[in-house]
Design goal:
366 residues, mainly alpha, A middle domain of Talin 1, 12 helices, 2 strands, 75% helix, 1% strand, globular
Amino acid sequence: MAAPRITALMDWTISVPVVAVVLLAVTWGGQPPAWLLAVAGAFLVGSVLAAVHHAEVVAHRVGEPFGSLVLAVAVTVIEVALIVTLMLSGKGNTTTLARDTVFAAVMITMNGIVGLSLLVAASRHHLAVFNAEGSGSALGTVVALSGLTLVLPRFTTSEAGPVFSSEQLAFAAVASLALYGMFVFTQTIRHRDFFLPTGTDGTPLDEDVHAEPPTLAATFTSLAALLVALIAVVGLTKVESPAIESGVQALGFPHTVVGVVIALMVLLPESIAAVKAAGRNRVQTSMNLAYGSAMASIGLTIPTIAIASIWIPDKLSLGLEPTQMVLLLISAVVAVLTVTPGRAKTLQGWVHLSLLAAYLFLSVRP
């Protein structure tokens, strides 16, 4: 009975993203009716679940930390393509689009994904245990990237306003890409053992020792289906964005809330995968997904928009507002206190989630 069930699951996780991409092609660039938007929304959710499934298949084959890296980078690459497409389209005010999207990704990953993962793991297993050295180096890289690209533009004086000059943007792009590349090298080659799930005694756990890894053909099939599913997730999120924008406007919320909602939808695959890993007591995998997604969002977005800025007439506003900087500072301090011991109680999960709640609330009522 197990084989038919697995086959049906694979068929479902492949067919739904394919249909979602067809819907994306039909609805892209137009004004679809409400019923078609509802259908697209249903397939958007299905594509998220399919993406998580295929990411787990690939992760099981390649092992950690490569598995979480695949999902984080895949989502971010497609997300960056969406940001650049919107900016080059010239529709609406896009000067703060990159900043708002990247900052939303940082806050959602540092506080939302981490907080929910710690809460789930600590609730089920008494304590959430992870490698402090690996998580600490990842967090340090996220904080450094955030400061270089989102805080410094508020204080530079070469250009008026919270923007970089061309030379400063080029430096930030090279520094971001270099830092992200060095971290990936450290995570996957130099000190890979620091990013493996750990047991309660701090020793690395063997990844899924009781489960047979998928075949090479099944892995490549899942990898292709993962990319299709992620294209569907990000693309349909863009299709749904006008309806989201209309709803936000009707509620009287600031326009930045649209970016927050879109970021929440785009980061759903990582969020679900991280919580599922935490439920299996593999908190380090959850931390890899959270901090890896934040890093990829900055390390890949800033260099890309630096190149795209050649064709964008308006200056890019990257500097955070004062309230956003305070939230980033508090989140960084709390994250350091959470990561340093290498284990966390449910309290730490609630603290991070409260910071996410504060960010979401102040986005609605700044």
